[in-house]
Sequence to fold (203 residues):
Amino acid sequence: MDSEKYLAQLHEIQNMMQKSSKFLSLSGLSGILAGIYALIGSGIVFFMEKDFAYPIRFDSREFLLVTIIAALILLFSFVTGVFFSMRKARKKHELIWNKISRLFLMSFLVPLITGGLFAIILVSKREFALVSPVTLLFYGIGLVNASRYSFETLRNLGFVFILLGLLNTLFVQYGLYFWMFGFGVCHIIYGAFMYLKYDYKKP
Fold:
């Protein structure tokens, strides 16, 4: 009995240390929904491509539509992530905004914003084919960087995105497919894994 009590105390201490050093309010559901948003958005672009006038101009209607769709995907994903993270933190009686969450956000946003600015520069130079691999690469770097302050499985997802970005650089003509698989399918698979492992409560 003493050994079981000792192990239980050690487990409790370990959990307390993890909570104090890790941002654990990420929800698997937000990952699933982010993947669905990405698939819907990229699916719209895919079916619109036949009506596009090539080469796409920086000031063209086609470019404006793609930009709006990308912005909406980013907005919906961000709002969904914040909503489910707040709900999860509230259920666990934890603060959503603390030192660890700030470190997590900073570690993630610096590569993400850098990649976004790089993508904008590429667009201004009409290097449209490189936008997809750049967004995949920098998003993956952001995940690997932020995984220090959250679930370790984020690192694995980040490496997948980095690999996809490098492969996409070799096959730039398939950018939309790589983007759909990365931001769509991989997000859904990862979100489902996270939900079943950390969020789902068996009856």
Summary: Helices lie at 2-21, 28-48, 61-91, 99-124, 131-146, 153-170, 175-199. The chain is about 75% helix and 0% strand. The mean pLDDT is 82.
